[in-house]
Amino acid sequence: MSADRFAVKKEDRFVFGIWCLQNRGRDPFGDQTRPELSVTECLKGLAQRNAYGFEFHDNDIVPFGCSAAERDRHIREIKKLMADLNIKATMATTNLFYHPIFKDGAFTSTDPAIRAFAVQKVMNCLDIAHEMEAKVFVFWGGREGTEVDASKDPIEAAKWFREALNFLCEYVLDRDYDIKFALEPKPNEPRGDLYLPTVGSILAFIATLDHPEMCGVNPEVAHVKMSGLNVYHEFAQALDAGKLLDVHLNDQKPLRFDQDLSFASDNLKDAFFLAKLLEDHRYEGTIGFDAHPYRSEADPWDFVERNMRNYKILKAKVQQFNENKEIQQLLAEIHGVNPDLRTILGRYSKEQADKLRQTAFDVDRLTARRLPYERLDQLVTEVLLGVA
What we know:
Helix content is 45%, strand content 10%. The chain is α/β, with parallel strands linked by helices. The strands form 2 sheets. The chain has an 8-stranded parallel β-sheet with strand order 8-6-4-3-2-1-10-9. Strands 5-7 form a two-stranded antiparallel ribbon. The protein is globular. The model has no long low-confidence stretch (mean pLDDT 97).
């Protein structure tokens, strides 16, 4: 792979969650099919393949319940390894879903002691993130939901969630940490219904926080497809709002359980338009992959190389789309009409309103507009199939 034009470079800013590489192939119907890699093996393997960095849960690098001395030793060893390998920790998150104490939620547990314990666990992880110089901290509410609606009022649950995030924002400000928070939406699984299921719901929730400027979104392809929504549009909504702080790329067959397939392995067009969005709008964050190797794999390294290579191939396809003369001519035709009216709705004024009221529109001519979308879509298909 290193000899071709899709060879990965550090400046590609590709990152993987440690949990992806440590996945053992276990599922609800079958036991593990491969051994779990150590953190050292994960970071060495990523560095050998020119990955820029890694993402981690607190318990990926510091075992749950370990002593302060053990915690410090683990972090010291990993920081040395990071320096030796020239690899960065880019995102941190707290595991608030695995331990049975969180069986009915962390920030939205009906027990205030569990809610407080969850916030304490996040505070400890924020300290680790700061020590490892991670700039983004993700909240995925894996247990923040319900199967029994009688069990909790969603208004109260939202209040508890808000209280936790407001407290943690103040903690980061008080400690002067250079960290922003990103909330990750998902509609369901492992709970029957999860709170904050979509990008839009998270953007609305962020607006109610004490420090919305500190918070954004970490959308994931699979979670969007589980909702039956459009990946391109969901990521675009976060980007348009200035809230796309981190991304998790993978793939998914729509409306099914969370499959965490490799990026671009199921729907090339979805993956292409997502890459196009990130490239055309100069997304500045890391390109994070949150997926699992197939259960049949003995190790994760073909999986790692595949995800990075697919993005680089699609990035080249984006350039090909942008340089394709027929595509650009069609787009110019589609978007080049009525240039004198482009700014009429730009900013309201009495004069602009009067001008709009006095404008005569030829409804028949506008209705008859040619929109060659069949040809445009075919050209996209041909770019992706390599015949354009």
